[in-house]
Amino acid sequence: MDCPHRSRIGNSDRIAILMVNRRTGRIRHACNCTAAFERTILISPVFLARRLSAIAVLIACCAASPARLTADENDYYRLISISTPKAQTDSRSKTWKPAPDGLALEVSGMAVLDSNRVAVAIRKGEVWILDGVYDDPPNNVRYRKFASALHEPLGLLKHNDALYTAQRTELTQLKDTDGDEVADEYLTFAKGWGVTGHYHEYAYGPKLDGDGNMWLTLNIGMGLKGNQLTRTVRDPTLGFQQGKWRGWGMKVTPSGNMMPVCAGMRSPSGIGANAAGDMFYTDQQGNWVATNSLHHMRDGAFFHHAEALASMTQPGSTIRGVTSVPNGAPLPQALEQFPQLKPPAVWFPYKKMGQSATDIMLDDSGGKFGPFDGQLFIGEFTQASMSRVFLEQVDGEYQGACFPFRSSFASAVLRMAQGTDGSVFVGLTNRGWSSLGTASYGLQRLVWTGKTPFEIKEMRAQPDGFELVFTKPVDAQTAKDVQSYAMNSYTYLYHSTYGSDEIQQQNLDVRTTTVSGDGLRVQLQIDGLRELFVHELVAAGIRSINGESLLHPHAYYTLNRIP
Fold first, then answer.
1. What is the Cβ-side half-sphere exposure of residue 20, based on CA atoms within 13 angstroms?
2. What's the half-sphere exposure (Cβ side, CA atoms, 13 Å) at 364?
3. What's phi and psi for 291, nearest 5 deg?
4. pLDDT tens figures, 285-324
5. Measured between alpha carbons, how far is 98 from 110 in angstroms, rounded to an integer?
6. What is the number of alpha carbons within 13 Å of residue 162 lying toward its C-beta?
7. Which of 1, 75, 111, 411 has the greatest number of beta carbons closer than 10 A?
8. CA 482/CA 512 separation, integer angstroms
């Protein structure tokens, strides 16, 4: 008989809360049920009296499957806290004042300077240089204020001999002209977007593309009213009103010339280039945005948030001719009705893969950060975590899969930067909003331990299914078993309502599997592939040749096109 309080772990492990009578040593289930134990457990009353201060203990009720070897993320990627606050409320004080001995390090931008130092922007308007951040443990970090009096900087880039940051109203160049590690020049490098006074009109960046251009993204204003509306532009056909270029991606040339490139963004807080130098941004679930997403930024592309079309008739706009916007159609049908609308390269299913996507970082370490060189890593605000993305091009367009990667950061992950040794600096701040973690802000470093986790490294689309590439050879017996895999697909509604449920869900059959000779690849032949649908895979039954289960058995492929 099974106790109703047992919970299932993975495929086979069960635990139950047991109550121990300290006088008799008898054990029973905490719920007082009469379920029989599957093994006899004897505990001495004397031992309990001496060793236990509580009468509730957690004891394994069933043995794990012999083929299952458990692992933990920390075995492979270790977190080092460089600076985190002592309390959740430290940064919310009305009398807050930054100082080296009590700096509220609400990291909003970050740039690696060399093998000893990083520069961080904090959202309350300063840039600090931190020395000694690679030390383990980091007991002697030194802080020096580089710049101040900025308006909520939300990015930081080291380029040539200067730092660049996007403030609320401009892209600013910060220069130290005399070598004392303090900025002497604050120069406007680019400007020209609208600001109505709405608090949500963030400006993010910059990041560099492969041609040396800087990219910015501009948050939409949400619920503009009153005097804010007097500072907007309006599209005469659709009637949308926003600050100029709000919801757009902007490119700034090396000479400082700024031009609009693409539109339809809601909260585009992450920007980054892939290994080819192409630019991407992340967006967050909300009105017009079904769930978090990753998009390839390119000329004339429109992504989802319709109010960005307020700037469509402005000089320089790359989007023209939109006379109506579908509202309430499934995404595949909306794309047919709206030719300028482009699907994301990757959808992040809500809660399964986070709730508020943030920064984008390319692993460009050449293997110093583990087996995922060339892939993208995505920050997650609400769940204080990081995910991983594999991208490929099909018919010239990007699409790919996302995977869980690392959880349990101290606060919301907003910024990431790869150090010279391959480790990753992670800037944290939840801005007083809700996030998991033990702190409200801070700086941590994620270090590869040198051990390779058993993971799905790549998930590639095939005409009749998917090819899985693993970090370690698989056990052929479990890999060939179609019962080791479960798959389903779904899409989303394109509408002005906040977010979307997964719709048109369908379970898929894995018909056959083929394992490569080296055990690193498995071909899955699958019935019922659908273009423009997310294909969710759970490979919980597969094992490595050493009996390991996958550290993360879930993968989510956005199949915009079948090869």
1. 21
2. 14
3. -160, 180
4. 999 999 999 999 999 999 999 999 999 999 999 999 999 9
5. 18
6. 16
7. 411
8. 7
Q: Which domains does the chain have, with CATH numbers?
A: 7-60 (no CATH), 160-322+340-448 (2.120.10.30), 456-559 (2.60.40.1220)
pLDDT digits (tens, 9 = 90+) for 450-485: 999 999 999 999 999 999 999 999 999 999 999 999
| 418 contact partners, CB below 8 Å, separation of at least 6 | 112, 361, 362, 363, 364, 365, 369, 424, 425
pLDDT of residue 87: 54
* Prior bond of 315 cis (ω within 30°): no
Query: How far is residue 312's CA from residue 107's CA, in Å, rounded to a whole number?
Result: 34
Alpha-carbon separation of residue 525 from 134, 403, 477 (angstroms) = 46, 21, 17
Taking the CA atoms of 371, 372, 377 and 382 in sequence, report the sign of the dihedral they define: negative
Q: Quick: pLDDT tens for 78-102.
A: 999 998 876 555 444 443 344 455 6
3-state secondary structure 112-138: ECCCCEEEEEECCCEEEEEECCCCCCC
Q: Are 461 and 557 in contact (CB under 8 A)?
A: yes
Top pLDDT among 83 and 120 is at: 120
Q: pLDDT digit string (tens) for 374-416?
A: 999 999 999 999 999 999 999 999 999 999 999 999 999 999 9
Give the burial string for 4-39 (b: 16+ CB within 10 Å, else e): eebeeeeeebbbbbbebeeeebebebeeeeebebee
Query: Judging by beta carbons within 10 Å of its beta carbon (0-12, 13-18, 19+), is residue 314 exposed, middle or buried?
Result: middle
Peptide bond into 206 cis (omega under 30): yes
Nearest to 72, CA basis, from 470, 551, 542, 553: 551
Cα-based angle 433, 343, 232 (whole degrees, multiple of 5): 60
Say what the pLDDT of residue 195 is.
Answer: 97
- Phi, psi torsion values for 391, nearest 5 degrees: -120, 145
How confident is the model at residue 84, as a pLDDT? 84
**215, 158, 385, 420: CA torsion to nearest 10:** 130
Summarize the confidence of residues 320-337 as an average pLDDT: 97
Residue 311 sits at the vertex; the CA angle it makes with 306 and 317, to the nearest 5 degrees, is: 110
Side-by-side strand order, sheet with 258-263:
203-208, 214-218, 248-252, 258-263
Give the C-alpha separation, 400 to 560, whole Å: 9
Q: What is the CA radius of gyration of the chain?
A: 26
Q: pLDDT tier at 433 (50, 70, 90 boundaries)?
A: confident
Distance, CA of 203 to CA of 268 (rounded, Å) = 9
List the beta bridge partners of residue 302: 263, 341
> For the CA atoms of 413, 417, 419, 423, what is the dihedral angle to 10 degrees?
40
Q: Which of 188, 171, 341 has its CA nearest to residue 251?
A: 171
Helix (H) or strand (E) holding 46: helix 45-51
Query: Residue 28's pLDDT is what?
Result: 40
